[in-house]
Amino acid sequence: MASHDVNNQDLKTSTLKYDAVKTKVRNYAVGLLAKRDYATEELQSKLARKFSEELQSTGQDIFADSVAWLIELGYLNDAKYCAMFIRSSVAKGRGRRRIEQELKQKRLPQTLVADALAQCQVDWYEHAYECLRRKFKTLPEDAKEKAKVIRYLQYRGFLPDEIFCALDQWQESLEQEC
Prior knowledge:
The protein has helices spanning 2-35, 40-50, 52-58, 61-73, 78-91, 96-105, 110-119, 124-135, 143-156, 160-177. By secondary structure, the protein is mostly helical.
C-alpha cells in the first residue's frame, strides 16, 4: 500500500513539474511572438536552446505541445510568416534568390516558399531596376564599374537575366533623359 502511495506521489510531482515547465515555455514563446513573428522551426530551436535543462527532465513533447497550442491559437502561422517576410525583404531591396535562401535557412517548407513567392506579385525585373536606380546615380563608365553594379545586384539576390534587363532599362532611361 505504501508503495502505491509513493508512486502516486511521484506521478503528481512529475505532472506538476511538467505543467510548470509547460506554462513557462508557453509564456516565453508568447513573449517572443509579441516582439516579432517566427517560423515554427525557428521558434522551436529558440525554445530548445532556452529550456535545454527542462527538456532533459520533462521530455521532448513539451515543445511540440506548446507549438501546437500556439498554432491552434493562430499565434504561429508559417504561411503568414512567409508572406510577411517576403514583403519585408522586397521593401529592403532583396531579390528572389536571396529571399528563397533566407527562408530556407529558417527551415520553411520549399513548397510553402514557392507558393508564397508566386502569390507575392512582384515584377522582379522592375524591382531589380528600382534597386539599381536607388543605389547608383550614373551609368558605369568602364567594365570595372559595371562589374561592381552587377555584383551589387547579385548580392541582393537577383538572377542574371533580371540584372542585365535592369542594366539595359537603366541605360535606355538615361539616354531618353538626354
